[in-house]
Design brief:
This protein has helices at about 1-30, 40-55, 65-80, 105-115, 120-150, 155-170, 170-175, 180-194. By secondary structure, the chain is an all-alpha fold. Helix 5 (about 120-150) runs parallel beside helix 8 (about 180-194).
């Protein structure tokens, strides 16, 4: 019974927040003289809340391949060299991400060292590194807004849809709150588009 209580309560909180946002949007529209308010602040707020919830409420290494990505960062940080792929997918050593391009792992290795230096345990280090993924997502939102402005797209529906996908696409929402090298790849793509 207790196991079902937490998801039920989280669902109620999410529904409450969503209802509050829709009510606020309705009020803003009603009292703004018919002008439609921008949905972007609400989308951004929900995107931030979802990612913070995933960052802090997802158990350590529960995200797909997170432990393997973490082990790759840890190897580079502790050995000062690139890792070599020696295991297969699903191996208990969780080192099957060693074949990935190293830029993401090189970027996070100093953060791992800092977390170790200030005394974080493994769970604390995971949260610290997940927070970097959250910051990468915020940077990607900035790239998205910059791209829309440079392309001079002013249609509110197109902008809202684009930013809605960037903020609330379910798979991206989850992966951008986890240790995952795709986060840097998506940002590099956003930067190149800009």
């Amino acid at each position: 019974a207790m196991r079902l209580l937490v998801p039920f309560l989280l669902t109620l909180v999410a529904l409450g927040i969503g209802s509050l946002l829709w009510w606020q949007l309705y009020r803003r529209h009603r009292y703004s003289g018919g002008k439609r308010p921008s949905l972007f602040p609400a989308l951004l707020a929900v995107g931030v809340l979802c990612r913070l919830a995933y960052t802090f409420l997802t158990p350590t290494f529960y995200a797909p391949d997170e432990q393997s990505h973490f082990n790759h960062i840890k190897f580079i940080a502790t050995h000062d060299e690139f890792a070599t792929q020696t295991t297969r997918l699903g191996d208990p050593a969780n080192e099957w991400e060693h074949n990935q391009p190293p830029l993401y792992y090189l970027t996070l290795a100093p953060l791992y060292r800092f977390a170790e230096m200030i005394g974080f345990n493994q769970a604390g280090s995971v949260l610290f590194l997940r927070s970097f993924s959250f910051l990468l997502w915020l940077l990607n939102v900035w790239f998205g807004i910059t791209l829309l402005n440079r392309l001079q797209i002013s249609d509110r529906i197109v902008r809202t849809l684009f930013l809605g996908l960037l903020c609330l696409l379910p798979t991206y929402t989850f992966s951008s709150a986890a240790i995952n090298n795709d986060n840097l790849l998506i940002n590099l793509g956003g930067a190149l588009l800009c």
